[in-house]
Write a structure and sequence with these properties.
heterodimer; A: mainly alpha; 4 strands; about 70% helix; about 5% strand; globular; B: alpha/beta; Rossmann fold; 2 domains; five-stranded parallel β-sheet; 16 strands; about 20% strand
């Protein structure tokens, strides 16, 4: 029991990070019907921006005010990553919007490789690390000498994910911007005819997706303490899988998909063996896809006539 | 048919002439290793060591009066990339290769080198199968994991008698190989592991495994793998309050291990070959690395340097640039004087004892990671 609770804590933390990245995939897919394969690398770049901001800040103000420094780091990372993703959409996707379906997809893969190589050359091929922060843990309860612990970082990750999910769910379902996004999702030409600025709505979607990726990137850096230029790939693939599992296009679906993958990986490692955890996670994905092709919370595709 | 044959012959002889024409100007030597990716720290060791050796040899007039031309290949620690790097070296006309770092990359790459008549010295690939396959063309200046695992297993069985030991590996040729050798030696010493598992080498999250190790109340974690994942495991162990030390092999030998692991790296045990930096005869060359290249010649840097030295000595003894003849010299039992001390190779291509200043050195030694005089955590011989 105590071990199970500990593993749940581990799994929810991992799943929250997957979920936050997955929201970015799902939002862009929702509005453009395009898989933004560069999103994992945008996440990686945001972690690097956070790293650089963190190193600059801590060398300025010393190690005393780490909590304050992290807030500033988060804001800087969100702003700069948002700018980057805005530029990516402008340069790589918008000119291809009218062309055949595969063109933006190839453009996204190219952008992904571009970002990875750019960071590799600009920041070097090695792992970058920061010292462990907020290492204090809270002991929830103890059974037979086994402490069930949770760290402040883990609590911060859960809360951030929960709050951001609620905020963006509200944004998409209740505000004018959200209405515009849903309108563009259904029919861009029609949305334009009723006075929605389609280009602007799509740009804002990319900006939001990047800001969320930056939150995930900053938390990833603080939680794991290490980032390298290749780190966009694996979390990116897992998050994309999470988005598909949860039902691509659905915000809560992305987070639920992320949590599901995080928990399957963790519980499989805990009760069977970590050797086969990816095999397990992806086998379950295949089974879910066979019986629920639209994902857990996705709407079945409606044929437009 | 005969026409085609004749044409082919003419073509191949023309090509052959072309190749030997360029080769006579320069000795083509290559270094292959993970220049980018999670273990780029080791690629840097190989590259820095070889570059310095080539610069030094060229400054003294080269090999047989010819300058060395250096090629660099990035295998990203990936066996498939390793094969394509090897093929690129073939196309470049390289005859002598220093590399690679990962055993899992070295083994398939050495097949390509054998097919194309190229000679390889690996400074770092320790899996027994690197030299056990009967290839004429592969040699190594580092030890083997059966030797390393024997030492590690014996130390664990002796120091952690009756304690609970977990064995974790990264599922690679090197990592799992070392873990299995160590496990075997531990069992011989009368100690059985309480947990044996593999993880993905590119993973960042090991919390599930660590919670499991806490449940098993382990006193020591033996890690068969490289420094990046190993460092993260230590870091996350400390974050969960698991205080057991980690023990690793030569794959964690870079100061980046301590940077990733954080302060919890202190007390980590490690087996590695003798550190050539402790040999007073190498003082000048170590200074050269530190001042001119701004690079600490740790771990496999000087092993890579020595690989180039051995190529030079063997080519000069053979008085030929034919890799087959040079391989015969290497296998003849000739003693080479290198920065590692004097050494020779056995029939398989494995290195004999290193003799430094007339004293035989063990092939593997125990190191401990602790704070050095400068306050940074690094590895030091003994406890």
């Amino acid at each position: 029991m105590e071990v199970f609770v500990q593993q749940l804590i581990n799994g929810v933390t991992l799943g929250s990070i997957y979920g936050l990245i997955a929201i970015g995939y799902t939002m862009v897919f929702g509005i453009l019907g395009m898989v933004n394969f560069a999103h994992g690398d945008v996440f990686m770049v945001s972690a690097f921006i956070a790293l650089i901001a963190f190193l600059i800040l801590t060398s300025w103000i010393g190690a005393g005010l780490i909590a304050l420094a992290l807030v500033v780091v988060l804001i800087v990372a969100m702003a700069m990553t948002a700018l980057l993703n805005w530029a990516i959409e402008r340069v790589a996707y918008r000119p291809l919007r009218g062309s055949f379906r595969l063109a933006p997809l190839i453009s996204a893969i190219g952008m992904s490789i571009f970002l990875m190589n750019f960071v590799q050359v600009a920041q070097g091929p090695r792992n970058k690390s920061i010292p462990p922060l907020f290492s204090e843990v809270i002991v929830l309860f103890t059974v037979d000498g086994y402490d069930v612990t949770v760290s402040y970082k883990q609590i911060a990750i859960w809360l951030t994910t929960g709050v951001l999910l609620l905020a963006f769910w509200y944004l998409v379902s209740k505000t004018a911007l959200g209405r515009a996004q849903r309108a563009c999702e259904q029919d861009q030409k029609m949305a334009a005819l009723v006075g929605i600025n389609v280009d602007r709505t799509i740009s804002i979607t990319f900006v939001i997706a990047a800001a969320l990726a930056a939150v995930a990137g900053t938390m990833y850096l603080v939680h794991y303490g290490v980032v390298s230029f290749a780190d966009g790939f694996t979390p990116g693939v897992k998050a994309f899988t999470a988005a598909v599992l949860g039902g691509i296009g659905s915000l809560p679906g992305a987070v639920i998909g992320g949590l599901a993958i995080g928990l399957i990986e963790t519980l499989w490692s805990a009760y069977f063996s970590s050797d086969y955890k990816d095999v397990a996670a992806f086998s379950i994905l295949i089974v879910v896809m066979i019986f629920l092709p639209q994902g857990l919370l996705g709407r079945p595709e409606v044929e437009k006539v | 048919m005969r026409k085609i044959l004749a044409l082919g012959l003419a073509l191949s002889s023309a090509l052959g002439l072309g190749l030997s024409g360029t080769a006579s100007a320069q000795v083509k030597l290559a270094v292959g290793g993970p220049m980018t990716g999670g273990v780029a720290a080791f690629g840097a060791q190989l590259r820095q060591g070889v570059e310095q050796a080539v610069a030094d040899i060229n400054a003294q007039g080269g090999i047989l009066g010819q300058k060395i031309e250096l090629f660099i290949g990035d295998d990203r620690a990936d066996p498939r990339e390793g094969v394509s790097v090897a093929n690129k070296f073939v196309a470049d006309g390289v005859k002598f290769v220093v590399g690679h770092f990962n055993s899992g990359v070295t083994i398939p790459a050495s097949d390509v080198y054998q097919e194309n008549g190229m000679l390889v010295i690996t400074p770092a690939a320790t899996n027994p199968n690197v030299t056990e396959r009967g290839h004429w063309n592969i040699f190594r200046v580092c030890g083997r994991d059966d030797q390393q695992g024997n030492l590690a297993g014996a130390i664990i069985a002796q120091r952690f008698k009756g304690k609970r030991v977990a064995i974790v590996h990264d599922k690679t040729t090197y990592g799992q190989g070392l873990a299995d050798e160590t496990r075997r030696a531990m069992a011989k010493g009368g100690l059985k592991d309480v947990l044996y598992e593999g993880v993905n080498k590119d993973d960042r999250d090991f919390t599930a495994l660590i919670s499991k190790m806490r449940q098993a109340r382990v006193d020591l974690v033996f890690w068969g793998g490289l420094h990046d994942a190993g460092g993260l495991i230590v870091r996350q162990m400390r974050a969960q309050g698991l205080k057991a030390p980690l023990m690793g092999g030569d794959g964690i030998t870079d100061d980046e291990f301590a940077a990733i692991a954080g302060p919890g790296a202190e007390g980590t045990l490690m087996t590695f070959s003798p550190d050539p930096r402790t040999n007073p005869a190498n003082k000048a060359i170590i200074e050269l690395f530190r001042t001119k290249r701004m690079f600490e010649p740790q771990a496999y840097t000087l092993y890579s340097y020595a690989s180039v030295q051995i190529f030079k000595l063997a080519i000069e003894r053979a008085n030929s640039l034919d890799p087959k003849k040079v391989a015969e010299v290497l296998r003849s039992g000739m003693v080479f004087d290198t920065v590692l001390g004097s050494l020779s190779f056995d029939k398989k291509g494995d290195v004999s004892e290193y003799v430094v200043g007339g004293v035989k050195k063990d092939r593997y030694v125990l190191y401990t990671w602790r704070k050095g005089p400068d306050g940074r955590i690094s590895y030091f011989e003994g406890d």
